Amino acid sequence: MSISIVKYTEDIHHGGFKSFLKKAVLLGIKTEVIKVSHTTLIKLEYQGKVLFCHKTNLPLFRRMGNLTKNKAVTKTVLESFGIHTPRGITAGSLNEAKKLIREKSLTYPLICKPVDGSLAKGMTWDIRSVSELKEAIAFTKDAYIHSPRSKFLIEEMFIASEYRVLVFNGKVLSAVQKIPAGIIGNGISPLSELIARFNEGRLPGFIIKQDAIFKNTLKDNKLTLDSILPKDTFFQFRNNLNMSDGGRSVERTTKMHPVFKKICVQAIEAVGLTYGGIDFFAKDITNEKSDYIILEINPNPFYNMHEKPLVEGKGIDVSFHILKSIFPTLKEK
Prior knowledge:
The structure is a single chain. The chain is an alpha+beta fold. It is 28% helix and 26% strand. A hairpin with a 2-residue loop joins β2 and β3. The longest helix is centred in the middle third of the chain and has 14 residues, at 130-143.
């Protein structure tokens, strides 16, 4: 049974795959959604060549993509290549975590996360005490209460700018700096007005959310929506950098030092991928001597943060690059 590609695309939550299908239709690639038993196939056909996608997975050669499913495994592989990752431990309980933290001499602030989670689910940043660590471990376990995880990761929090680096076929396609949801004051307008203006320029689903985290952040900083920030003062509403929470992405590809690009390509190849998104942290992305770490690798990343209209700067048409690799005779319209 086939269904409308337009309707199917509207319901997709994976930003990269949604962009991929929209571009395919725009470029005249025959695209069909087929329901088979309890799953979904997407058939792509162009000039006699046919390819199938399963669910929201891009049809790209992965080889050993399972090396990224377990974050502890990913760290082990990367470290064997001399690639920097955060210092950390894997544990199954608070007591075991406290013991290993002492043995490894880990220092606060820390991060706690599932060994095989995604989309920052069950993740806690900026842990600064044992009591906060206890709460973070409980939060991590509760996040997957319907599919319990026996182990979690505790890592030192690397304080630096965060980037998402997209690697494809041995090349860095794009690097964007991820900036958490926040507002820059102008010394005149209250927070409510600044937030409204920011949200007006965003796509649906990518605005600054005024949820419990947002409200608690204001309360902890003795601010309200009527507060006026000093001119050029940046106020951050949350620790995560998710675009769906109002985070920003800023084009940094040309500023990224070639040494760091080489490291990112090596990392993708080390875990057996030809395509992936890297969470890359660096004190100074332009300086090859700068401290850096690779936090995680995603084998099927949301890449709409690299494309217009979300990215600030030139951006890149990732969807076209991927489609062109599948259908070499494809031309941009």
